[in-house]
Amino acid sequence: MSQLPGMKVDCRGDELGKVNDVILDRTSGEIGFLSIDPNQNFLGIGDTKRLIPWSIATVTLDGIMRIDASKEMVLASPETPEDLATLNSSTQGERVYTAFNVPAPRFEVSKPVPMAIP
């Protein structure tokens, strides 16, 4: 997972920029979203980071993150909030999944593994 930030992003054949950050679901520890730096502007100055659901991303052996969405869909997706805690509200997180017409995952709390006592 530490190799994902900085990875090039391809949207259905169009280069779109790089993965800015990986956002985990805090209850399950699973990846929920990616924050994409879309390189909209010259030298990336003033770019707005965009959220995409992890479920539409695929990491390929050639080191490129492939997104099953158009470049326009990513550029129209919700911005990555300054305060990631706002994604905990059901409406904020749901907006990201709705923008890509994919169902929101149902993250489950990890269950502790019992330890054997010797």
Provide structural commentary.
With 118 residues, this protein is an alpha+beta fold. It has 2 helices and 6 strands, in the order E-E-E-E-E-E-H-H. The chain has helices spanning 71-76, 90-99; strands spanning 8-11, 14-24, 31-37, 50-53, 57-59, 64-67. It has a 6-stranded mixed β-sheet. The longest helix is centred in the last third of the chain and has 10 residues, at 90-99. It is globular, with a radius of gyration of 16 Å. It starts with 7 loop residues before the first strand and ends in a 19-residue tail after the last helix.
Key features?
118 residues, alpha+beta, globular
Task: List strands and helices in order, with pairings.
Layout: E1 8-11, E2 14-24, E3 31-37, E4 50-53, E5 57-59, E6 64-67, H1 71-76, H2 90-99
Parallel strand pairs: 1-6
Antiparallel strand pairs: 1-2, 2-3, 3-4, 5-6
Number of helices: 2
Strand order within the widest beta sheet: 4-3-2-1-6-5
Helix and strand sequence: EEEEEEHH
Report Rg.
16 Å
**Helix share of residues?**
10-25%
Q: Which ranges are low-confidence, i.e. pLDDT below 50, for 5 or more consecutive residues?
A: none
N-to-C span: 34 Å
How would you describe the shape? globular
Structural class designation:
alpha+beta
Number of strands: 6
Strand content: 25-35%
Q: Can you give the mean pLDDT? A: 82
Largest sheet: 6 strands, mixed
Quick structural gist:
The chain has 118 residues and is of the alpha+beta class. The chain has helices at residues 71-76, 90-99, and strands at 8-11, 14-24, 31-37, 50-53, 57-59, 64-67. The protein has a six-stranded mixed beta sheet with strand order 4-3-2-1-6-5.
